[in-house]
Design goal:
By secondary structure, this protein is α/β, with parallel strands linked by helices. It contains eleven helices and twelve strands.
Amino acid sequence: MSPAVQAFLERRRDVGDRARPRGAIHIGLVNNMPDSALERTERQFFRLLSDAAPDLPICWHLFSLAGIRRAEAGHIYLIHQNYRGLSDLFNTHLDGVIVTGTEPLHADLRQERYWPELAMLFDWIEAEGPSAIFSCLAAHAAVLHFDGIERQPLEDKCFGLFNHEVFGGHPLALSLRTPPKVAHSRWNEVKADALKQAGYQILTSSREAGVDLFLRRARKLMLFLQGHPEYDAEVLGLEYRRDVRRYLEGAVERYPDLPQYYFEQSEIEALKRFRERALPCRDVSLMDEFPERPLSRLRELNGTGPRSSVFTAWLASIAQAKARQNGFVPARRSFVSASLP
């Protein structure tokens, strides 16, 4: 386990033990992200849920699918972080689970080598698992498995930081007091009409980015995210830089578009000047001169705010359900309470 994540978890454990020794909830993170993003994804979701409910102690359990292709370094990281597989997940008492996606190799997700495992996970969640959140590609895979909803390819990458409208009277939607601003980074989408026809309820949507949050009525609440509310401030900028490098290496044919509503104007101008140099001289050594000014537009969302309030309500519902199951009333908390199905 990395020193940074270890220190973070120990701080959370100390705070949680002092605040509510009997009230800890157990959250499973099925982290299927590529090797380079494993630790960052842990940190992002740990921070997001900690910000959402600072007085609620959370015990994290880490899992990953065996079918995800990984280099040796990735396997070593999973071992050191005490990641476990699906058989262990099915035998771990969890109060909630978060499932992330990974970069697909096939247009049809059912052709991915990890699909049988992922489908088994979805079936378990639907039949007997806890309340679940499906993030980005995992959301696309889940609606495909549950209801046959195919994701649709986009002509241009949905990439940037977008304002969203809030819909409906569901408690999760009511918890979003201000229009949320959420990062998106994807080449595909599931359409609102297809989701509505299958009985899904849309909670937030953007005119430019499409549907973001939506839920499925089931025995336990299932929440789906097309966007990335967990992203740290610099992530969209790092993804853009990665995509520029891929272009200069010849791995892709198209120079990437800038993320929308993310960079400051001075950064945009510097990045456009770099693009003008890079297009006629496709040489990866140019990355040594890539503008490295801090990448900023997500900073305003760090800490508690619109992006975390829906997670506050989700965690509150889990804590309340667990309290009822254990036969005691939870202590007064600083996070929002919400009655959810």
